[in-house]
Amino acid sequence: MIIVNDKKICEVCKKNNAVILCDGCGIPLCKDCRSFDLWSYGCGHIDPKVFCSKCFDDIDINPWGGKRD
Ligand SMILES: [Zn+2]
Ligand SMILES: [Zn+2]
User: Fold this and answer.
1) Which segments in the chain show pLDDT lower than 50?
2) Could you say which DSSP state residue 56 is in?
3) What is the value of pTM for the model shown?
4) Domain residues of the chain, as ranges?
5) C-beta neighbour count of 10 within 10 angstroms
């Protein structure tokens, strides 16, 4: 995940300051609009991911949490 340090406005609500970038499409997200997911690998390594709601539901971007139609 990529933390936002400089002042950016959230791309989803266009209202709050962004705190993080979406791991899928790279848009800035505030703390209300981000969705966390944990990707775990076989070796026990867990990689925290953060997505906008669109990428979170996208099976191609988030195979662990995305929904199949
Ligand atoms: Zn927002
Ligand atoms: Zn996204």
Assistant:
1) none
2) H
3) 0.82
4) 2-56
5) 22
